[in-house]
Amino acid sequence: MARTLQRSHPLQSYESAFAALPEGISVKAEPYLSMTDLRLPEDVDGPLGKALPREPGGWVSTADGLIVWLGPDEWLVLSGSRGPGELEADLRDLARPNQGSAVDVSAQRISLRVRGRHARDLLSGGCSIDLHPSVFQNGRSAQTTLGLTGVVLLALGADGDDFRILVRSSFAGYLAEWLVDAATEYR
């Protein structure tokens, strides 16, 4: 009888450490998201009923996820409800006739949510970009380093204290350790 491998989240063991963070900082490992890297010529309209974000460092929401600008002809499409194969196939149908490509990268990154009144300060301590609310506000994203780890950082919500971090699965444990350690400053 063949055994089935159970999928576990790389940050499952950090749940108690995240729960013990000081007041004003919340870190939560989000459920897996389907992610497809989409490459299209700049003159092609967007998928999923949304215009592609054309401004560097922008993102737009869709009915079940986000489309994040990664480069002049590259976007990361995230979905919380569609499977990776389904998302990739739908985007490939758009990309193929436009000399583009769509590649499933769901296993590459996981998502962390950092919230709270000290969230921006916590992230600023390990990030070299300007995270001031007048610059990095809702609808902005950046490919940067956080605690020496390459991430895609997104500003969510109008209140300015809600962020999503997309980090490579293999660096997720390191980043979780960094976040927990850096948060001790706010005890």
UniProtKB/TrEMBL annotation:
Signal peptide: none
Pfam families registered for this protein in UniProt: SoxG (PF04268)
Coiled-coil ranges per UniProt: none
Name this polypeptide is given: Sarcosine oxidase subunit gamma
Organism: Kineosporia babensis
Lineage: Bacteria, Bacillati, Actinomycetota, Actinomycetes, Kineosporiales
